[in-house]
Specification:
By secondary structure, this protein is of the alpha/beta class. It has six helices and ten strands; from the N terminus they run E-E-E-H-E-H-E-H-E-H-H-E-H-E-E-E. The longest helix is centred in the middle third of the chain and has 14 residues. It starts with 5 loop residues before the first strand and ends with a strand.
């Protein structure tokens, strides 16, 4: 991968964070994925170009068309639960077809529990095991300087949770989530 460099400390790596659907659960669109929202806000705080593609709530019959129109990016970061593994795998395959030179990283409970199996089964560049905010920023910065990180990347926890900015809720339309309490949307 060629170096994208930085201008005035700003990352030129366009990054898209993706939350795949879980077709085996009754409603996978209850609320925004906070892990991705925290990673996004941490990247934004560090002058990175990041967006979130929330694919939960996509119906199985519409999934192929949703992933066939993935926007281009230099880096993709996917969250993955065991219940969303099959859809995450299809998203990775679609990224590789549409954007073969993009960097793909996966994190979340499934790849954290099975990092080597995940790396061996999917055509991804890396797996972040554990906390992703600091680690994924290091992945983006490595792409900035043309020295991408590959393989299993140990999650780095911030020294203090106060170091993390509030989750970026503005990157996803909050009105599209379904969680309710006492009959009212929350």
């Amino acid at each position: 991968m060629q170096s994208l460099a930085t201008i005035d400390g700003n990352s030129l790596v366009k990054t898209i964070l993706i939350n795949p659907p879980s077709f085996g659960v009754e409603d996978d669109r209850l609320e925004q994925h906070l892990g991705l929202a925290y990673i996004a806000s941490y990247l934004q705080t560090n002058d990175c170009d990041v967006s979130i593609l929330e694919l939960t709530g996509v119906q199985r019959e519409n999934f192929d068309s949703a992933i066939s129109a993935l926007p281009s990016a230099d880096a993709f970061g996917l969250n993955c639960y065991s219940t969303s593994y099959a859809s995450a795998k299809r998203i990775v395959e679609s990224i590789r077809r549409q954007h073969p030179h993009s960097y793909v990283c996966m994190g979340g409970p499934h790849p954290s529990a099975l990092p080597m199996e995940t790396l061996g089964d999917l055509e991804i560049d890396s797996v972040v095991v554990g906390e992703g905010e600091v680690s994924f920023l290091s992945v983006v910065r490595s792409l900035d300087v043309g020295e991408p990180k590959y393989g299993v990347i140990a999650g780095i926890s911030p020294l203090s949770l106060d170091e993390l900015p509030c989750p970026s809720r503005t990157l996803v339309d909050q009105s599209t989530f379904t969680r309710s309490f006492l009959g009212r949307k929350t």
